[in-house]
Amino acid sequence: GDSVTQMEGPVTLSEEAFLTINCTYTATGYPSLFWYVQYPGEGLQLLLKATKADDKGSNKGFEATYRKETTSFHLEKGSVQVSDSAVYFCALSDNAGNMLTFGGGTRLMVKP
Amino acid sequence: DTEVTQTPKHLVMGMTNKKSLKCEQHMGHRAMYWYKQKAKKPPELMFVYSYEKLSINESVPSRFSPECPNSSLLNLHLHALQPEDSALYLCASSQFGNTIYFGEGSWLTVV
User: How far does CA B11 lie from the centroid of its chain?
Assistant: First the structure.
């Protein structure tokens, strides 16, 4: 079945540092890929998505590129802020788009 | 801002109580979901409704009873829960084949 693997956290960075959170997937067909963010005490918010190979999703300074050849969807940000501290989930949806498979989540802590 | 609204945000209930979680969306989505999330874990799918009909039940105990009164509303009725059912319950919605959007969640504590 489908699966998503993302780097374990916590990831601790200083403000303005470069961020990479790795995500790889196993899936049949052509899934869509997502990054969701969960701030403390809140629900999940869609951060960005990509629906086909070589698509780049971007939002709030975050970017991720759908790499079919390496089955990856790594999340990057050039300069993190304290307000980016949260848990980040990589996910894929099946071909019908009706179900999500989540990675285990990566906690990011950004220190001033 | 999320357009999926969940109430209540916090709920404390005893093991003999009956309570309900409510979810509402006005995006015209025809698929609605309940997820359960334990601390430091990703969300786990519980139920999926398609066109107000239950299409997926991920072997959830019968003490959780979903209901979809209409295309905008989704309820989760709770009865005789156990302390291990304490978790964040997330409602979500989507239009088929498109992005799934989540609400802010309802924090449930069973005492």
Answer: 13
What DSSP designation does B30 have? S
Question: Which residue in this structure is represented by tokens 């489908």?
Answer: A2
C-beta of residue B59 within 8 angstroms of C-beta of residue B41: no
- Give pLDDT tens digits for A24-76: 999 988 899 999 999 999 999 999 999 999 999 999 999 999 999 999 999 99
Q: What are phi and psi of B83, to 5 degrees?
A: -55, -30
* Sequence-ordered list of residues with C-beta below 8 angstroms from that of B1, at least 6 positions apart, any chain: none
What are B85-97's pLDDT values in tens digits?
999 999 999 987 7
Does B42 contact A104 at a Cβ distance shorter than 8 Å? yes
Which of residues 56 through 85 in chain A touch B, CB cutoff 8 A?
none
Q: Which among B40, B42, B96 has CB closest to A103? A: B42
